[in-house]
Fold this protein.
Amino acid sequence: MLMSLEEYARERLWPVLIETVQAMPMYFHHKAYTREVILHEKPDIKPNELAARLKIPLGEALVILHELKNQIT
């Protein structure tokens, strides 16, 4: 069972995951595509679904969804 985005964000290594993901060459493209296309089609997409759809690591999907959620709220 996957943890929620909030549970992941409370983990001790969360800042390291964010730093690593943001250094990935396609990260900003994936984030923009998620914001502009995927979330309009499926606003409640789960991290594992996003990872499968974009063929990206689960960690990248977690960071993208967490950051986009925090931009909205």
The CA atoms of residues 1 and 48 lie 11 Å apart. The mean pLDDT is 93. The longest helix spans residues 27-41.
